[in-house]
Each structure stands twice: as C-alpha cells, then as structure tokens.
Amino acid sequence: MERDGEAKVYREVFCSRYHHCFTAVDPSLGPLVLSVCLEEEENKLRVILRMKECSLHGTFSTSLFPHIPSAVELTKMLCDRVTVSKFEAVSYLKAPELITAFDEHRVSPNFKFGILYQKDGQLTEEDILSNNDESDEFKEFLSVMGETVQLQGFTGFRGGLDVCQGQTGSEAVFTSFQGREIMFHVATKLPFTEGDPQQLQRKRHIGNDIVALVYQEGQTPFLSNVVKSHFLHCFLVVRRIQREEEEEEETGGPSYQVSVTAREDVPLFGPVIPEPPIFTDRSLLREFLLTKLINAEISCYKAESFSKLEHRTRSSLLESLQAELTSRSQCMMGDPSPSALPGPEGARGAFEGSGGFIENFKRAIRVRSHSFDTLGVTRKTSGSTSQKPKMEKDGESDKSPGPLPDSLGPTELKDQASPQEET
Questions:
Q1: What pLDDT band is residue 413 in, cutting at 50, 70 and 90?
Q2: Distance CA 423, CA 404 (A)
Q3: How far is the C-alpha of 243 from the C-alpha of 353, rounded, in Å?
Q4: Whether pLDDT at 198 is above 80
Q5: Cα separations (Å) of 346 from 52, 189, 285, 319, 324?
Q6: Where are the beta strands (DSSP E) in 29-170?
Q7: Residue 215 pLDDT more than 80?
Q8: What pLDDT, on a 0 to 100 scale, did the predictor assign at position 55?
Q9: SS3 (DSSP) at 248
C-alpha cells in the first residue's frame, strides 16, 4: 500500500514534542512556514519547510553546529533559493491544528471507485451503462469486493451517493480495508433512465471517479477509450475465466484474470501484476484489487492535469495558513491592529472576513473537486504514441480528450496486462 508518509510527519513527530514554528514571505518563493523540533535523545534537529511547490524535510545532527542555527540558516540549508532575512515566531496556541490540516490535506481515509459490468458483445459506453440485470457470476464478484448495503440511512462513507431520498438507487457496495472506507459506484445499482441512451444518472458518478473497475463476461475486449471522462485515469479489468470443473474444485472456486491500463502520465504503482495474471483465491484477489485501486488513485493525482490543480490548491492553502498564523500570533502578542500587516486586504481578513484557514481549506477542496471539467489531458494511444487533445468547443463537454492506452481483453491480456509495469 502506497502512502504519503511525509504528510503525517508533523502530526506523528512534531506534535508529540516541544517544537517551534515560524513564518515568512519570501520575495520570490512566496509564503513560507517552518517547523523545527529538537530531538535531544538522538541529538538531532528535524525541520520541515513548507513552500508553494512542495514541503522539504531535513534532519541535522546537532554536532554540526556550535550553537542552534537560526530559522533563516535552517531554511537556507534546505533550500538555497530562499532569500528572506527574517522569520516571525508563531505563538498562536492552535497553530499545530492548522499546520496538521495543511500537511494532511492530500491524505484521505476514504475512496470511491466505479464498477462497470461489460457483457459479451458490448463495445460502447451506451451498451455498458444500460445494463440492469446482474448475472450470478457478477454478483459473486461484487461479494468479493465488498458488502451490498442499503443506502437509506447509511452512516459510513457514502462517496457522493444519496442516503436520504433514494435519488442514487437503493443499494451500493461498500467495504473497509486497512483503515479506509471504500464506496463503489456500481453501474447496475445506480438509477436507470428510460429513453436516455447516455444514462447520465450513472455517468455523473462513474464518470467523475478517477479509477474504475471493469468486470467482463465473454470474449469481448474492453476498449479503454469507451467511457468518455476527464476524470477517469485508470481502469482495472477483471474477467472470470472458464476452467475445468476438476481444477475449480481443487482451487475451491472460480479463477479471475486481471489487467490494468492507465493514462501515460500516471506514475507506476504497485502491486505488480503476477505472471500469469490469474487469481484463484478470493481473499488474495480482494486484497490485490483493493490495494491496486487505492494505489492507482494516489498515482493518478500525480498526473499532469491533477498535479497542476493540486499546486493551485496548495498555493492557496499555504497563503491562507501563513496569513492566519501571522495574524493570530500578532493578536497573542497584543498587537491591536493585525489588519495592518502586509497583504491586499490585511491578514485579519484571512481568518475573519474569509472564515479562517479551516474554511479556506474546505473552500479550496470544494473548488478542486469542481475544477476538472476544463482539464486538457494527454493520453496514450495505441503504438505508444501520444497526442495533445484539442480544447473543446461549447456543447462538447461530454467528449473525452483522447483515448486511454490500448484495449484490454482476453486475447490481449498477456501483452497488455499492465503496460506501465510489465513488458
């Protein structure tokens, strides 16, 4: 399981120890928030420098210094581009809470994934999204992934589904895995609209997921550019394979074949697909797929389109954090006019007029969740070539910017099981 280990360093290391935090605004780098912790038992200084582009972590032996270095000296040891000559100490009592929220804004304990059901002979998005009945084999596979729950009154992570009015169907598939809650948007359980070939009620959920799982029946390959979406960056394709009855009795159940495809700018992620890519144990299949789904989403956020949006979100949050820490600290020190601090509206507005860092944090996350409609994404096409999609014209927002890599199906599984991970 991939994790953003650095995101929780401040909570797990700094918050349990005596430490100091400092803020500054660099002429070229913008807002800076520095945290310094002295680990006397190990004779070392641990430092975190938060900038718009990233957070830098450093650990220095105290034996390197004749005296404890200043905030400016520590900062320049981590980043030689820093030109600021002075930091302000943070004295706000709730600073650790705000800094923790900033550091962990990318860390989520909850995930939502789509599940598409592809029958034999289905090659279009309309065909796949129009499936209503579920075969016994598909129901069995869903039971591997999670538990079918009633949405009415459901109190767990709902993944955007309606748990009050029944507008997104009556049931869904939900599971918990390694401390995370996962809600699946199963196409066949989402509302079906007569006379709507696009099935927008289903598309609005699955099309807004980042990773989707496709369950195949039959020999029809899955074309990865079938589902038109700016969000979907990765598909896991699973097919139940027919084996001799004697073999099935020996293994205790059916066997499943797994393949993966992702857009070309999604970094590699594990676990690596085994060779052959066949699972006969239900528990191993479940663990592999859930781990692969979570890691896929984490890696997708590092793709070009998502990373640009993350940088804008981070920049906005850091500006708000630095302004609020500075203003609150001024108030703690008895300064009656924190609004006189540098800034277009004064730092007081960062936490009074705008609702504070926590409100800005919530606002930035909401803005990020609605910002993908305008993304233009480079996708991989057959033959390992790439193309930059044209910007859409008005009225074409439902069109995909380009195909995902390759088609996945039983006849192509060995060569294309995971184009990023295996050759």
A1: very low
A2: 18
A3: 66
A4: yes
A5: 20, 51, 55, 12, 10
A6: 30-39, 44-50, 55-61, 88-89, 110-118, 147-150
A7: yes
A8: 95
A9: helix
Torsion of CA 160, 166, 171, 174, to 10 degrees: 20
Over residues 208-226, mean pLDDT:
92
Cα dihedral 400/406/407/408 (nearest 10): -120
DSSP code of residue 169: B
Stated pTM of the model: 0.73
Average pLDDT over residues 221-240: 91
Owner of token pair 């002075």: 86
Q: How many CA atoms lie within 13 A of 14 on its CB side?
A: 26
Per the CB < 8 A criterion, the answer to whether 55 and 119 are in contact is: no
Region label for 239, one of left (φ > 0), alpha (ψ between -120 and 50) or beta (otherwise): beta
* Integer Rg of the chain from CA: 25
Q: Sheet with 147-150: list strands edge to edge.
A: 147-150, 171-177, 180-186, 110-118, 211-216, 234-241, 255-262, 278-279
Tokens, residue 299: 């890696």
Please state, in angstroms and rounded to a whole number, the distance separating the CA atoms of residues 135 and 216: 11
Name residue 385's beta-bridge partners.
381
Q: How do residues 53-94 score in pLDDT, each as one tens digit?
A: 999 999 999 888 888 899 999 999 999 999 999 999 999 999
